[in-house]
Structure formats: structure tokens, C-alpha cells
Amino acid sequence: MSEIHDQTYRRYAGNREPMGRAWTVIAWAGIRAMLARKMFLALMLLAWIPFLVRAVQIYAVTMWPQARDFLPVNAQLFQRFVEQQGTFVFFICIYVGSGLIANDLRANALQIYLSKPLFRMEYIAGKLSILLFFLLEATLLPALMLIALQIAFSGSLEFFWNNLSVIPAIVLACVIRVIVAAVSMLALSSLSKSTRYVAVMYTGIIFFTEAMYGVLTFVTGSTRVAWVSITGNLDNLTDAIFRQPARYETPMLVSLLVLACLVVVSLSVLERRVRGVEVVS
Predict the structure, then answer these.
(1) Residue 274 in 3-state DSSP?
(2) Considering the entire predicted model, what is its pTM?
């Protein structure tokens, strides 16, 4: 004869995590899921090839000082590296970011997320952290490692002391590029249930604004219209951050304002699109 046990109320004996940390669960789950994809790992390895090329360049200049005449190691080298990594920022955004919210919308999982003790901003922060993690790994991390290699190969801090502004410039330029790309991609991902459509929208915006800049430059004969191009604004701001001559006639403050407006609009879209039943406990 089977026994029936009395299942009365029992106090929860587990650990109760403080409110505000739920975003870390979303972030690490997303990061682990992406790291399990071989195609994505191949993309991340490909993103580090420019680092290897620059590392060889720094080593060659250190071993053979005469190579500095045609392979200079200066602030411009690190600026060009940051800008070149923009190509991989584009592909990582598409691969990682296009489905971050779109997949949840397609599976009707957003209501499940927000019906739990999870705030809307925690959900957004968790999804955004996934994209920021990989974008910074492909931009800021290799750039800082190049600085470390230069110091290690030369055996002195001469380059560091002579270029004190390079490290802050690298950090600021990478962070701005990554935030603009990540926030705008996440906003687009919240507008559709189709990851392909999101990828097409992101690609279209980047190339359309660049094409519009080309047409307006041809018509006006001036680069002052570079503010219509997202890439142009990022490059213009990067020139200012690295204290290099501006390649466009567009004022730096205008480029900064355009990018700031893009981020604000993207956050507004996220605030409107990510909705559910929020439960506070």
C-alpha cells in the first residue's frame, strides 16, 4: 500500500538573489549559446587576424628600427586598427544581434520573461550585454593588447609616455562605436520577428546612409554633408578623439549630436517595443 505524504507549506531554503541581478543570467546564457556555434567562433577568430598583422608590424619595427620609415608605430596605427575593426563590428552585430529580441518575439517568450520578477530594463540590459561583450572582444581587447605588445617588444615605456592620450582615445573610440552599433541593432531586433529582416534593415541603413553621403557630396562638392552617414560620423568623431586632422568638413559636434540622437531614438524604440507584465516581488 503506497503512502501519501502531507505536502504542507515549507519555507524556501535556497538563496534569494537581490533584485537587479537578473540581467546577468540573460547575458551569460546568451554568451554561452553563441560560443557553442562553430560558425560564430570562426567569425571571432577571423576578427583577430588584423591584430596578428599589426603585432607582426610592431615586432618588425622593434627589431629593425629602419622599418619605421614605412611602417610607423604611432597613434595613427591604432586609429586605423580601430576603424578597420568596424567591418567585424558590422558582421558580429548581424550574427549576434539580429535575433536577440526578434527570436523572443517569434516564440512569444517576451511575455514569459516579463511576467517574472524581471524588470524591462533588466531584460534589455541582459540582451545588450551579450552584444557588447563580443563587440568589445573584437575591438577594445585586441587594441589594448597591441599597446601591451608594443611595450613588451620594446622593453620600455617610452612609447607609452610619449603617447599618453592613445589609450584613452582607443577606449573612447571603441566604446562609442560599439554602443552606437549595439543599441541600434537591438532596437531593430525589437521591430520584427524575423532575424533575416532585421539583418536586412541594419545592412540597408548602413549602406543607404553611406550612399546618400556619396550622392550629396557629388551634388554639393563638399564633405560637410558627412553627417548623413553613420560611418562618416563615427570616423569624424574618431579623428577628433585621436587628435588627427578631420577628413570631413562636418563639425565634430554635429557628428556627436547625430550619433547621440541615434542612440536616444534606439532606446526610445526599445522602451516602447519591450513590454510585458512586470511583477515586483
Answers:
(1) coil
(2) 0.87
